Amino acid sequence: MRLTRAAVWAALFLCAFWRFAVAQDVTLTSRDGRIELTGTLLGFDGEFYRIDTLYGELTVDGSGVLCDGPGCPNLQDYVAELSISGSATMGAVLMPALIEGFALRNGYIALRMVEDKTHFNYSLTDEQTGKLAAVFFFRVTNTDEGFADLLANEADIVMALREIREDELSRAAEAGMGDMTGTNRSRVLALDALVPIVAPNNPVRDISPGDLARAYAGQITNWSDLGGPDAPITLHAPAPETGLGQAIEDEIIAPAGLQMSPNIMRHMRGADLAGEVSRDAFALGVASFAEVGNAQALTLTGVCGRALRATRRTIKTEDYPLTAPMFIYLPARRLPKIAREFLAYTRGPSAQIVIRRAGFVDQAPEEVPVDDQGNRFANAIASAGAEVPLSELQRMVSVLSSMKRLTTSFRFEAGSVRLDAQSRSNIQQLARGLEQGRYDARKLLLVGFSDGEGPAEANRSIALRRAEAVRSAIIEAAETADLDRVVMDVDAFGEAMPMACDGSAWGRQANRRVEVWVR
Hints:
five-stranded antiparallel β-sheet, globular
């Protein structure tokens, strides 16, 4: 074991030297000597060189050229490298679990080496040959730092708990990294959610999103205003530079038109936040679903009495309104083969099991029988008014009762016809399922629902158009699918099955959706 570790350390030393040597001038010469390129070597993926020349950044096939210069890699003992930076929540558990799962599945021995509090690496050694195949370097801080490393050309993958912001997007494009919102540049790796939490001995068990926002804005300061004891509320939140802290601003505070109170205890690590809240009977916090720990999660409620609790299924379907997708972002450049294989693995069924075991919510579609959805149909009946006649409810039951609901749903950004980030990922996921023949000889029904604002017939018409838009997006994405082998229809029931109360913006947002039903 000592010899193995020594060999790995020696290889890592060579890797460190290679990383240092990359930023040196090299000359690439065609094998017939007719073409010569000189520039700064930016990277080598085992097959292609990436160099910065007078003509701009070029990618050159290594099989057709000879490399000369101190930065040239050793082609025989090439070790792939991947730099990963960003969210500590993702870097602490999720990404290491996926790397270890990938190694186990592909015949590598994964060895983790910790450098300091924010840096560690994984070396992958071929189990049969004993040769070092790759080193994955991690820098785990926060989402902001991850994007900064990407823009500084110091990271190949960013781990993010929020979508890339406009200023980061424009700077990435200016740096030649492409459109970071594109299908091949951004990806939802797993799902999480923002969950309000209290101590287990706190009697409060639910809270409305509006009251949660007002508490964090300092407008509600006593538990008695939330149905609890006469005691001051102690607020806890993730640090503002973390992706989770920024998600709270975006998803809870900004929609209410408020600003965060300065009197909040901030935490860099979600586990520390949950631990502090669980020990203080008068504390209120917002944590990641995966990091609730011993704290008590609160249910979200509305004025109409409907409640939504964060569970694996409600997060996956986005029925729970405060979902928080976990993103990875990649620049528009070629990664080493083993890195591409790892990224392909993260989409597969084995990775979804790893994600679930790590405490996060996977994206594997599940089929939910009608028998497990009694509350939804009961709500539909209880909410029906003059504009939703009994005949429409009967039609909905008749159409859906013989089918199962997929946990794959589609929702739109507030005030926009653009699908939200999780839904854009769901388009790709469902398209891949069609390409793989997973739904051959089956019927898929895309069902549109709306909020209750405005006339019922107009709402049904809008919901139907959204379902048709989703179908068009799926067909466009499923380029290699044989769509003659599957039936994909659309229908809409408008405001007939609300998930939440229409009296709030978040409730209306939850109600505007396109569901997928299968038979």
